[in-house]
């Protein structure tokens, strides 16, 4: 008999019906001659009762069941007696009186319990990923992932976007992150690269007049991994022609609004907050600020520039700045030792020290209080909007160290002091980005986003002369302190693209060899275009309330880029290498 | 002013309105002081008229326009005068009186005309793919591709399938086609492989209880290419648990029915024809027969086994067979020379010769007629249901050569004699496949589908003893003579999977090393499961009426696996190779 219901969906409406269920043994209890089995499938759990008075053969099978056996049962749905009702369970008012039972497949005792309570090492989870994914919270995460893409696809389909697939075997370009390479068998000594994004192909589609493109696209970066990075990741990637930045932003606000309603059932602001990159760095010390709480950075450089406290005045003399955060009402809660620990935390972000003052009714206290007496103290506390009981933490350094260290401290206090309302989703656009970043070590400019980003029209003349002051027509979307994605208007004129490559240090020949097709395309009638890409894995992580990106990917890699389930990567045969005209510079451990 | 309409959508309803259009110059004609511009975007073409009496500045711009310029125009929509109406054009009853015009981007003269009439070499099309994709029929193909995936996704979403992404960086397994390899930087001397299909991962998801999975999945094979093969291709991939073959087939018939209705607007049979592999080979000489026409193969082995024509009787003595096709009414249309040419055609499929007879009122004629006189001739013509004027073509050889050669001849006549109704879509399931194919050259069995296919229950005992007689619980879907895809129930028990690997010649160690995780998984409670995968590229090709798979892929590779647009593959730097601990066995042409 085919399955009539999923386990979790046998409701009171089915009382009096015979059902046929297929699923896994979650738990078996023997009690007073009866056998109770919690039977599980992706939808949830239902209680099956084996009673020799109903069926002796079925009960004999019930006696042999162990956890994770795959079984098929048939039986009558009955109401549980009053005392047996389990209100915490979706199917807690009913049970199934088993009259037929079959073991479809037996199971060994699993290496860890299939539930959301048991703590399991991540390596074990990844090795037995097929068991890990049986845990209800994991299934829920992938259900949500599926729902998110479904919602986004429906929106983009309705908006007239065409889903187009772009190549995975593509060309290596040294600009950007490190490529994964794929040796060619046909073209000896040559390589494909896996794409870091479909950027150039989606631009080509705009040149083709496709007008609106999207793709849920796999992307690849061979970079050292962190908890929020994977070798392959998924982007919600889109591009459109003839649209202004305002139009692109407005459409994506509607997209996010509908998706949040579909997936989380919440209404978010129709218009998102916007902030320039400069303002975000200034107020929050971050280009992806969590604006669900205050605790903003306060610039006191002007107040302390002539201070006799040389750490402050010296930093400013060296072109740096002095900022503080005011941890309201926390003076009494932080001992010297606690603050020393905060200093160590700040040091991880490059701060050479963490100065502090405790505000009291009659002035400020602490080791550096002697430098700030009378009016100096008043000026500081007024600027910091501080009152008695507040703790002021200062960092004096280059602007970027101040931002990093105080920005990180701000986030730390936000969490520890419960300043953040976790039920709130605060979307935020960051705009007015610099087009370039200067790398001191390499002595050259890099593209802050990518080399195809359109500068502000009025800044185009500065590409040659003062690249550090060129602003980009770029926009990042931030959610609760995480970068969800970023986009920009693109360069669509050959002369600007050539200038861009020149500023990035490309010779004419290098530019032509790597991006000649793009610049050629610009000469055959290219429309203005722009787009955006969102990180799907991170979006799922945030909406599913996960903290590890790996929990949002069905078969992720470890921090050393291994798949513990299938044992990839692995050695290959010499015959395979020969076909590719490759030799290893290491001992081959041929399999 | 933002765009108000797509060009092809300015209809009579817009008469009297001012519109704002952005698009490409398809063609410009100057006539009697006016300038007529056919303006194009993805939706089609509209006529814009530049008239100095309406706007002298706009007309001055109109005079500078050339093909493929990107322009923005604004103006009033007016009805064309009676004589100017173009009924062949969607927008042929109206035109736009331009009062404002801007050149957004100029264009060089393209290397080929942007229309569907001009013949262009494929290399040139691929090099300038961004121009090739501007051709209306190309856009229509990708629109259809997008519509097909949209329809299929909607169906599978409604059926409770979960879309799950599986890895692209995975493990190399020597069984099957050649893998594309990706060297690992972190694990020196080791490699990932790009997946030939998500087969094992989708099976793992079934072990996880995900129950119903689908993915529009990119797959990769490093094989020598033909017109209908690409290094990367896309599968509509699905898998489900606890379903019988009948249930899987029935669901996929509904899927195809809805998709055909959505995309082509046609109603197809609710239940598809079914045929065993043996019957298909026997009647049509093909495992993917086009059943839109007859011209079936007729077995005459029993009639000719004692013939004095040694080619026939000898073939049967050697264990082969003799079959014919009856080309109705064609005797008069094929000269000896024509038939010699057919013989050369058959030779490409391995036939050593093509015997023939022309049926006349008083017997059969032709070089071998002397062997078939009186009753022998009658027996043949009766079996062939032949009458005067028919042409009988015979192949005598091994069963596989007979099938290949006559199957190919059948298709050739089907096309040349217009026996095929191209408006018809005939879906057909091929079932009862052999589980193995024996390779004479390698002296071993290979899996006819893949090593995870479930044998018929009643054949499991034959895995060890007579593998050639084991049938597979596999099913292919054929549309109009093309294999759309194939699927099977899968092995879900360790003992059967072990037997399977053994028959395929794996040592225990090899099986464990490559597929240990799969066999382990089978021991932790694996449900019975099965699925299917369809080739999306081929499906698009058939429904869009294309003959070249490359026309269904936005950025395809050539027959030598090159991307002519971006010049991939390409040499990489020695630094990149060093990081991967690789050396080339060929001269490095470092870029």
From TrEMBL, chains A, B:
CDD domains: AspRS_core, EcAspRS_like_N. Residues 142-556 form the Aminoacyl-transfer RNA synthetases class-II family profile domain. Coiled coil: none annotated. Residues 199-202 are annotated as: Aspartate. L-aspartate binds at residues 175, 221, 449, 490. It is found in: Cytoplasm. The keyword Protein biosynthesis applies. InterPro entries: Aa-tRNA-synt_II, aa-tRNA-synth_II, aa-tRNA-synth_II/BPL/LPL, Asp-tRNA-ligase_1, Asp-tRNA-ligase_1_N, Asp/Asn-tRNA-synth_IIb, AspRS_core, GAD-like_sf. It catalyses: tRNA(Asx) + L-aspartate + ATP = L-aspartyl-tRNA(Asx) + AMP + diphosphate. It holds the Pfam family tRNA-synt_2. Its EC number is 6.1.1.23. GO terms for biological process: aspartyl-tRNA aminoacylation. The record marks 83 as: Important for tRNA non-discrimination. Keywords: Aminoacyl-tRNA synthetase, ATP-binding, Cytoplasm, Ligase, Nucleotide-binding, Protein biosynthesis. It comes from the Bacteria. GO terms for cellular component: cytoplasm. HAMAP family: Asp_tRNA_synth_type1. Belongs to the class-II aminoacyl-tRNA synthetase family. Type 1 subfamily. Aspartyl-tRNA synthetase with relaxed tRNA specificity since it is able to aspartylate not only its cognate tRNA(Asp) but also tRNA(Asn). Reaction proceeds in two steps: L-aspartate is first activated by ATP to form Asp-AMP and then transferred to the acceptor end of tRNA(Asp/Asn). Homodimer. This is Aspartate--tRNA(Asp/Asn) ligase. The gene is aspS.
């Amino acid at each position: 008999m085919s399955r009539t219901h999923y386990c979790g969906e046998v409701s009171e409406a089915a009382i009096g019906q015979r059902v046929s269920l297929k699923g896994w043994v979650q738990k078996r209890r023997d009690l007073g001659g009866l056998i109770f089995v919690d039977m599980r499938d992706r939808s949830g759990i239902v209680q099956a009762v084996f009673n020799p008075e109903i069926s002796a053969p079925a009960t004999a099978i019930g006696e042999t069941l162990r956890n994770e056996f795959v079984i098929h049962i048939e039986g009558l749905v009955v109401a549980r007696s009053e005392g047996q009702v389990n209100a915490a369970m979706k199917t807690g008012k009913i049970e199934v009186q088993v009259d037929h039972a079959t073991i479809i497949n037996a199971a060994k005792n699993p290496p860890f319990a299939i539930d959301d309570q048991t703590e399991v090492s991540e390596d074990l989870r990844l090795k037995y990923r097929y068991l890990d994914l049986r845990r209800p919270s994991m299934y829920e995460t992938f259900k949500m992932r599926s729902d998110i893409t479904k919602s986004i696809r429906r929106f983009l389909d309705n908006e007239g976007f065409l889903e187009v697939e772009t190549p995975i075997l593509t060309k290596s370009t040294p600009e950007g992150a490190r490529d994964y390479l794929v040796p060619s068998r046909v073209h000896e000594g040559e390589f494909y690269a896996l794409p870091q994004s479909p950027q150039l192909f989606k631009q080509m589609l705009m040149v083709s007049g496709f007008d609106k493109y999207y793709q849920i696209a796999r992307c690849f970066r061979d970079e050292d991994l962190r908890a929020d990075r994977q070798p392959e990741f998924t982007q919600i990637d889109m591009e459109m022609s003839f649209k202004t930045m305002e139009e692109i932003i407005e459409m994506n606000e509607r997209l996010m609004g509908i998706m949040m309603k579909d997936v989380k059932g919440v209404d978010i602001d129709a218009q998102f907050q916007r902030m320039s990159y400069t303002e975000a760095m200034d107020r929050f010390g971050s280009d992806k600020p969590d604006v669900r709480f205050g605790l903003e950075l306060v610039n006191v450089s002007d107040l302390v520039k002539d201070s006799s406290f040389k750490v402050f005045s010296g930093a400013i003399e060296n072109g740096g700045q002095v900022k503080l955060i005011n941890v309201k009402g926390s003076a009494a809660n932080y001992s010297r030792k606690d603050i020393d620990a905060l200093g160590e935390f700040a040091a991880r972000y490059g701060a050479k020290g963490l100065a502090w003052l405790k505000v009291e009714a009659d002035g400020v206290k602490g080791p550096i209080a002697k430098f700030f007496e009378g009016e100096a103290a008043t000026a500081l506390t007024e600027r910091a909007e501080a009152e008695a009981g507040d703790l002021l933490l200062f960092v004096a350094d280059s602007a970027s160290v101040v931002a990093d260290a105080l920005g990180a401290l701000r986030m730390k206090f936000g969490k520890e002091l419960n300043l953040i309302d976790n039920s709130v989703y605060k979307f935020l656009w960051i705009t007015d980005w610099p087009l370039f970043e200067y790398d001191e070590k390499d002595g050259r400019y890099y593209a802050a986003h990518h080399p195809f980003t359109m500068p502000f029209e009025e800044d185009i003349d500065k590409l040659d002369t003062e690249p550090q002051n060129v602003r980009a027509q770029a926009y990042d979307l931030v959610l609760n302190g995480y970068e969800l994605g970023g986009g920009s208007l693109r360069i669509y004129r050959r002369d600007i693209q050539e200038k861009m490559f020149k500023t990035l240090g490309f010779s004419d020949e290098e530019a032509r060899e790597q991006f000649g097709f793009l610049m050629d395309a610009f000469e055959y009638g290219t429309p203005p275009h722009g787009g955006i890409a969102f990180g799907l894995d991170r979006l799922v992580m945030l909406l599913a309330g996960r903290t590890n990106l790996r929990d949002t990917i069905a078969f992720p890699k470890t921090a050393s880029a291994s798949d513990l389930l299938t044992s990839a990567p692995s050695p290959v045969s010499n015959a395979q290498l020969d076909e590719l005209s490759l030799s290893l510079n290491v001992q081959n451990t041929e399999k």
